[in-house]
Amino acid sequence: METDVKSKLPSEHADVLGVQSQGTKQAELFTSSFLKRSLPHARGSLDDQLLRKAVVLEYNNPKKVKAKRKKAKGLNARERRELKVFQIKPEHHRYSLFLPLHELWKQYIRDLCNGLKPESNPQTIQQKFLKADLHGAVLTVVRSRCPTYVGSTGILVQEMKHVFKIITKEDKLKVIPKRNSVFSVEIDGFVSHIYGSKFELRSSERSAKKFKARGTIDL
Amino acid sequence: MSPELEKCSRSLLVCEKSNFTKEKSRYDIHVSKHYFNYKVSIVIPECASLPASIAGVINSFNSYYRVRDLPIYKLLEEEFLEKVVKKGQFYALSYNTRIDEDNTIAFLPSGQLILSVDKDTYEQLGLEGKPSQYKHRKVLRYVVTIDLTDKLMSPGAKRYQRLITSLKEWVPIKCDLMISSKMTAAEEDGGVLQNLLSQYSFEEHRPTLHTHTLKEMPCPSLHSTDRHGDEKSCDPHHFLEWLGAVSMDISSDNEASSFLSTYVCPDPQSLMSHGLLCTVTGFLIPEDIYSLLLELRRYFDEPKFTSWLSMTVHGFVDSPVSWGTTEHGFLKSGENFYNFVCFRNQDYWLHMATGSHDGCPP
């Protein structure tokens, strides 16, 4: 069969069609390249694919030129520190600027706990608090192994993995490590004490963490 | 030797021999630095009754007040601080508090406030202090020393404000206090103290005096020139033991039939026909004790049968300081006392003793 395909056209037909048939070798090359382009996947040698198979020759797969997409890698910690994304400029160190944030937070907590009524069970409030975001809460250090931290009060501006950054009424940005301290958060008469040593997680990870119940915790 | 064995509890006895008239003798400093005294016991051999002069001095001792549930920040308020505390000669010690369990407060006459607190209170107080020297593995006790005469502690300063806030809001410490303040009539400050005390329940007390005559008992014969280690002289340990037995009314006969006590009178001894044991108890201040000591020195102005007399002053077992600002603790017993043996020729022996959780006496 192959020889029939590759054989020369008879001269009478060639004159009528106006086609000049090529030599044997050229015809072979032409056929193989045409078949390669037409076939959807060129796997292995052409002979295996074509033997006893019917191929639709018009099926042509236009090869798409994929534009190379650059993945957004994100900044690593060094670049973040250089760009100072998380630093608050000194002119923004004003307590009055963060009071609206505190109001927002109060609203958020009230919505979270379905309206803080005096009759609400402290246990349920506690569970919600563990998963809640504390940015904008008024924190007070109640107990600490280092006596100078005790008594610091302010609105929480940033929560990092090991540290709370709060802004005090005297417009000072204080950085208080979480370890070995007890913080108190107050909302509508509900006061919660947070043991900082157990809270050393990024706020995003805290929502997924399960906390164990302990009797008493010594600093 | 293993380190645990090295740290066994020990008691210290410091002995000093000198003369009252010598300029270099530091007996007055030792007396004045021992701030909180509970009991004075005087033993005079060959003396039938308490001499009138000594009785007179004891009667003129300062009376002390006992207040219940006084919040400490009241004693640090501006008016009281300026008029009473900073003037000096203001002594206060918390009552009914154990030095190893509860929070103890002491006001020293040098204008210092000492708070000996447990770990939880220290973490809540927020005042800087040092961990106690007498700790085992974990620190359970902290000592906060505040100098009220410091410029930085003047009313209005930040540190003073923090101190007041801490004692008023964060940890409101209330305790029973014994207060003694040597205010003379000329100074008007007494009014401030009375005003403050009248807001709380308080009582005024006078030091109580007991006299007991000792009959027909052996007593050691001491000579001022006795040297330690000499065969003839009496060992300080044995002498103090005998003194303790006498003041506790324990028989030191060491009879074979008695199983209660084996205390003996140390050799060399002589039999005394009668002797005097006089005890004064209360919240006694060093100034009064010093005047008593001067009076006892004058006892030998007239010829007497005996050649020596002894005065023992006991400190409070639960006081946070013993001599000066040396930290004092309680392990098996919190003794801190000193004993004067005065001789006819104005020589004296001074023994100062402390228990285990205590620094060395000066």
UniProtKB/TrEMBL annotation, chain A:
> SMART domains, alphabetically?
POP4
Molecular functions (GO terms): ribonuclease P RNA binding
Q: Which InterPro entries match?
A: RNase_P/MRP_Rpp29-subunit, RNase_P/MRP_Rpp29_sf, Rof/RNase_P-like, Rpp29/RNP1
For this entry, list what GO says about its biological process. Answer: rRNA processing; tRNA 5'-leader removal
- Give the UniProt subcellular location, in the record's own words: Nucleus, Nucleolus
Q: Which UniProt keywords apply?
A: Nucleus, Phosphoprotein, tRNA processing
A GO cellular component entry from the record: ribonuclease MRP complex
Q: Which Pfam families match?
A: RNase_P-MRP_p29
Q: Which domain of life is it from?
A: Eukaryota
Q: Which family, according to the similarity comment?
A: Belongs to the eukaryotic/archaeal RNase P protein component 1 family.
**Function, as annotated:** Component of ribonuclease P, a ribonucleoprotein complex that generates mature tRNA molecules by cleaving their 5'-ends.
- PANTHER family attached to this UniProt entry: RIBONUCLEASE P PROTEIN SUBUNIT P29 (PTHR13348:SF0), RIBONUCLEASE P SUBUNIT P29 (PTHR13348)
Q: How does it assemble?
A: Component of nuclear RNase P and RNase MRP ribonucleoproteins. RNase P consists of a catalytic RNA moiety and 10 different protein chains; POP1, POP4, POP5, POP7, RPP14, RPP21, RPP25, RPP30, RPP38 and RPP40. Within the RNase P complex, POP1, POP7 and RPP25 form the 'finger' subcomplex, POP5, RPP14, RPP40 and homodimeric RPP30 form the 'palm' subcomplex, and RPP21, POP4 and RPP38 form the 'wrist' subcomplex. All subunits of the RNase P complex interact with the catalytic RNA. Several subunits of RNase P are also part of the RNase MRP complex.
What's the protein here called? Ribonuclease P protein subunit p29
Q: Which organism is it from?
A: Clupea harengus (Atlantic herring)
Instruction: Give the encoding gene's name.
Output: pop4
Automatic annotation (TrEMBL), chain B:
Tell me any Pfam family this protein matches. Answer: Ribonuc_P_40
Q: What is one cellular component GO term in this UniProt entry?
A: multimeric ribonuclease P complex
- A single MF term (Gene Ontology): ribonuclease MRP activity
**What biological processes does GO assign it?**
endonucleolytic cleavage in ITS1 to separate SSU-rRNA from 5.8S rRNA and LSU-rRNA from tricistronic rRNA transcript (SSU-rRNA, 5.8S rRNA, LSU-rRNA); tRNA 5'-leader removal
Top-level taxonomic group: Eukaryota
Q: What is this protein called?
A: Ribonuclease P protein subunit p40 isoform X1
Q: Which organism is it from?
A: Clupea harengus
Q: Which lineage ranks, top first, belong to the organism behind this chain? A: Eukaryota, Metazoa, Chordata, Craniata, Vertebrata
